[in-house]
Amino acid sequence: MASIEVNGKSYETDEEGYLVDLNEWNPEVANFLAQSENIEMTDQHWEVINFLREYFEEYQIAPAVRVLTKAIGKKLGPEKGTSEYLYGLFPYGPGKQACKIAGLPKPTGCI
Amino acid sequence: MSDVKKFMFVNRKAPYGTIYALESLEVVLITAAFDQDVSLMFTDDGVFQLKKGQQTKGIETKNFSPTYRALEGYDIEKLYVDRESLQERGLTEDDLLVDVTVLSRAEVGALMDEQDVILSF
Amino acid sequence: MKFGIVVNEGPYQHQASDSAYLFAKAAIEAGHEVWRIFFYHDGVNNASKLTEPPQDDRNIVNRWTKLAEEHKVDLVVCVAAALRRGIREENLATGFRISGLGQLVEAGTKCDRLVTFGD
Amino acid sequence: MLHIINRSPLADKALENCLNTATGGDILLIEDAVYAATTGNAFEARLRAAMGKFKINVLRPDLEARGMADRLVDGANPVDYAGFVALAVANKTCQSWL
Question: Does residue B119 sit at the C interface (CB-CB below 8 Å)?
Answer without folding.
Answer: yes
